[in-house]
């Protein structure tokens, strides 16, 4: 009897304010109106057994924008939703600082932020710390019993998860096998990709049929 393969759907957030203003000075920018429309346009081929999401406003807004397409209750009553702080972005720009737990919990009271630090006081991102977080996320995904998991996150962190393949926004073509963060990729938003995790813990992209 063959085992059911676990599939991981990685979705980058829609266009956010810092994507149109490269000098955006504030923490935790929201989606633009266009980013919300991008996210609503995403078509997920299955109903996920689980949704895991970065604790940033732009990823949460993306998640809520697409959930009405796959469940009648977008607050997680039918599909479990978990907030994983390890999914936060992997660069140190001001816009990649998130909100304190009390603030983000007040904005999204139906979500559970207990895994997040009370303050946004996570260690500075380096290649080593980002790679370690990516490994921890993959290991946690491997240990879950669910078979179709939607992960809503960020371009650079996904780069670490999938060994150098960068994501774009909302279905635009995606650029793969780039040298480590030295090339300007001009990526867009809400790109959805499907992966399986092999026995070595490597994310292997599933070819589109």
TrEMBL record:
Keyword hit for Calcium: no
Top-level taxon of the source organism: Eukaryota
One Pfam family here: His_Phos_1
InterPro entries: His_Pase_superF_clade-1 (IPR013078), His_PPase_superfam (IPR029033), PG/BPGM_mutase_AS (IPR001345), PGM_Phosphatase (IPR050275)
UniProt keyword Isomerase present: yes
The entry's keywords: Glycolysis, Isomerase
GO MF, one example: phosphatase activity
A single GO cellular-component term on record: cytoplasm
Alphabetical list of PROSITE patterns matching this protein: PG_MUTASE (PS00175)
SMART domains: PGAM (SM00855)
UniProt-recorded name of the protein: Histidine phosphatase superfamily
Organism of this sequence: Lentinula raphanica
């Amino acid at each position: 009897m063959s085992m059911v393969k676990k599939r991981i759907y990685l979705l980058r957030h829609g266009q956010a304010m810092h994507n149109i203003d490269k000098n955006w000075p504030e923490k935790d920018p929201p989606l633009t109106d266009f980013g919300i429309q991008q996210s609503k346009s995403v078509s997920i081929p299955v109903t996920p057994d689980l949704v895991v999401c970065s604790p940033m406003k732009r990823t949460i807004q993306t998640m809520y924008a697409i959930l009405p397409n796959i469940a009648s209750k977008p607050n997680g009553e039918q599909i479990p939703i978990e907030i994983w702080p390890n999914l936060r972005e992997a660069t140190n720009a001001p816009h990649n600082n998130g909100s304190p737990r009390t603030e983000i919990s007040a904005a999204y009271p139906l979500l559970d932020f207990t895994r997040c630090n009370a303050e946004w006081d996570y260690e500075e991102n380096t290649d080593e710390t980002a790679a370690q977080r990516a490994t921890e996320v993959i290991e946690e995904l491997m240990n879950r019993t669910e078979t179709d998991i939607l992960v809503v996150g960020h371009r650079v962190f996904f780069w670490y998860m999938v060994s150098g393949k960068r994501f774009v926004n909302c279905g635009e073509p995606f650029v793969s096998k780039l040298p480590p963060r030295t090339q300007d990729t001009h990526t867009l938003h809400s790109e959805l990709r499907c992966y399986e995790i092999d026995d070595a813990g490597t994310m292997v992209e599933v070819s589109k049929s």
